[in-house]
Design brief:
Blueprint lengths: L2 H15 L11 H7 L15 E6 L18 H18 L4 E7 L15 H4 L10 H11 L3 E6 L22 H4 L4 E4 L7 E4 L4 H17 L4 E4 L16 H7 L6 H23 L4 E4 L22 H4 L4 H6 L5 E2 L14 H12 L5 E2 L1 E3 L18 H9 L6 E4 L2 H6 L4 H9 L21 E7 L5 E6 L13 E8 L16 E6 L6 E5 L8 E8 L12 E3 L2
Parallel strand pairs: 1-2, 1-11, 2-3, 3-6, 6-7, 7-8, 8-9, 10-11
Antiparallel strand pairs: 4-5, 12-13, 13-16, 14-15, 14-17, 17-18
Helix pairs in contact: 3-5, 7-9, 13-15
Length: about 550
């Protein structure tokens, strides 16, 4: 046995037998972890696991980067500082992920091998911004231990205030210039017309998948994220002009609508398979329109009377969940509790029933943009409405929330952000684990030092006891827990919620890891534990305890 192995064995024995005055011996780390899986009385306001995120939209520069940054003397640094400010906000709100739009209009926020640079970086379509934004976006998020979900729009090519339906206005190297037959203008000959890739053309679908996989292969993203734009929302009195495509490829389908849904099904299924073939740990999630079908159209539908994604976008979102082609779904339930056409209190239970029995996690898309917005129902002028949404979710299979969008979260209209953050995001939380994705058990870390200064701040140091190969079996981050007093046994359920979770911190290079507890109070006695967490948020047993008495 090596000296390191002997030290590790000694630490395990100490963790199982050591006592302090008046305190019983602790259970072994593995036993403590197992105990938390039992029936524990946890605080629903401080869940241990809950996805918390906001969408950071780049299309038309909604959130990031700002148009003002285009003319900054140092545009690159200005855009970096703007993004860091959004991450500062995420951290203040105890978020653990960001969803950032990196392909808004068949363009790219990275040096893509297939598509031009996005105009939203410089104001000019196809212009090289002089840096790699995606690399920075991912690295900066990970530095703060935030998951990075890369948000791609599959088929939208232009916006009305950009190139519009005019191919000649696209970037000089845009693939549509070589394949004008790949796109459709919709609405036809109308204000607000946009270009869309035609989802019915197999070569288009393959190209879109390849363009997205370029980012998956080259960057350390945590998830691929789609929103609700597949076939475009219908314009009054106009059908999407794909009759010729349907005639060419639609044999065997009873209706054009069935064929269109099949096209989107293929995109989702193939995208899922290709992501997992390249990087099995990268998640795939979709945020569709909040209504699949109304009960009046389908007995399996929700008790609603609104637009149906099944018919409007040809998105069979319920099928995607049941087939488990996606890892998570974020229905945009952008309506208030009690709204007649689409009641939040009816849709969330419906979606909860849809994911029940599947491996797909349910997060809810929240409409922060509606708070105190002109023309909205009275409920959105109640500062507690959003917090009521999050409270309502606690009774259903809801694993988190995503807020649209960053600028509206920051606006904090009516103080609503402050309210729901205080009532629901007061403690840090781990991202929900996905047991169906590949993982290897993690060894617990060992706290090697605890230094307390005159202010009471405590600096913890620790090191991993083992490290796996590649993305599995190794720590991507660590969770730090603190209990009052010198108690070796925080209780069988002490780790079951976030009541004692201080922070999660990203693993750094090398063996030594550090965290400074600035909330420690002078004169108080504490017991600390640290767990290792892999990139999919699977958690190790707790470390042996470390006591701070001075």
């Amino acid at each position: 046995m090596t000296a390191y192995a002997r030290l590790l064995a000694t630490l395990v024995v100490l963790a199982t037998t050591l006592t302090v005055a008046g305190a019983p011996a602790t259970a072994a780390p593995a036993d403590r972890a197992a105990a938390t899986g039992g029936a524990c009385l946890t605080n629903p306001a401080t869940p241990k696991r809950q996805l918390r995120a906001m969408w950071i939209a780049s299309v038309t520069n909604i959130d990031w980067p700002s148009k003002a940054s285009w003319t900054s003397p140092d545009r690159i640094e200005a855009q970096k500082q703007e993004y860091r400010a959004w991450l500062d906000l995420a951290q203040r709100l105890n978020h653990n992920a960001v969803i950032v739009q990196v392909r808004p209009t068949a363009d790219a926020f990275w040096p893509s091998r297939y598509e031009p640079w996005s105009e939203y970086l410089t104001g000019t379509r196809g212009q090289d911004p002089g840096w790699d934004p995606l690399a920075f976006l991912v690295d900066e998020a990970h530095r703060r231990n935030l998951e990075f979900h890369a948000w791609f729009n599959p088929y939208r090519v232009s916006m009305p205030d950009g190139a519009g339906p005019d191919i000649d206005k696209l970037a000089p190297n845009h693939p549509v210039r070589q394949h004008p037959d790949w796109v459709v203008a919709y609405p036809v000959n109308a204000p607000g017309s946009r270009l869309y890739y035609n989802p019915g053309i197999p070569e288009v679908r393959q190209f879109v998948e390849t363009a997205i996989l370029d980012a998956v292969e080259r960057y350390d993203i945590d998830a691929v994220h789609f929103d609700d734009y597949f076939y475009p929302y219908p314009a009054a009195g106009q059908d999407f002009p794909d009759d010729a495509t349907y005639a060419q490829y639609g044999a065997g389908f009873a209706t054009k609508a069935d064929w269109r849904r099949h096209n989107i099904d293929l995109l989702v299924q193939e995208m899922s398979q290709k992501i997992k073939a390249v990087k099995p740990w990268v998640k795939f999630g979709i945020s569709p329109f909040g209504i699949w079908r109304n009960k009046s159209s389908d007995p399996l539908g929700s008790d609603t009377n609104g637009t149906q994604s099944y018919e409007a976008n040809f998105a069979d979102t319920r099928k995607w969940v049941k087939q488990e082609w996606i890892d998570y779904i974020v229905p945009q339930v952008y309506w208030n509790i009690g709204f007649t056409v689409a009641d939040y209190a009816k849709l969330v239970p419906w979606w909860s029933d849809v994911v029940a029995g599947t491996r797909v996690q349910l997060y809810i898309g929240q409409a922060d943009y509606k708070i105190a917005a002109a023309g909205q129902p009275a409920a959105w002028f109640d500062p507690a409405e959003m917090s009521r949404h999050l409270t309502f979710n606690q009774d259903y299979l809801v694993s988190g929330n995503v807020h649209f969008s960053a600028k509206d979260v920051k606006a904090n209209r009516l103080g609503a952000t402050d309210i729901y953050a205080a009532e629901h995001y007061s403690r840090p939380a781990l991202v929900p684990a996905m047991p169906h994705l590949p993982a290897k058990p993690l060894m617990f870390p060992v706290i090697t030092g605890a230094h307390r200064d005159a202010s009471g701040a405590t600096t913890l140091t620790w090191r991993p006891t083992a490290d796996g190969v590649g993305p599995f079996g190794r720590a991507a981050s660590y969770a730090v827990y603190r209990f009052d007093g010198l108690d070796l046994v925080p209780g069988a359920c002490g780790f079951a919620d976030a009541s004692h979770l201080l922070a999660t911190v990203r693993a750094t290079g090398g063996g030594k890891q550090t965290f400074v507890d600035t909330t420690a109070e002078p004169g108080k006695r504490y017991t600390y534990f640290v767990t290792a967490v892999d990139r999919l948020w699977n958690e190790s047993p707790p470390s042996p305890p470390r006591y701070v008495t001075y």
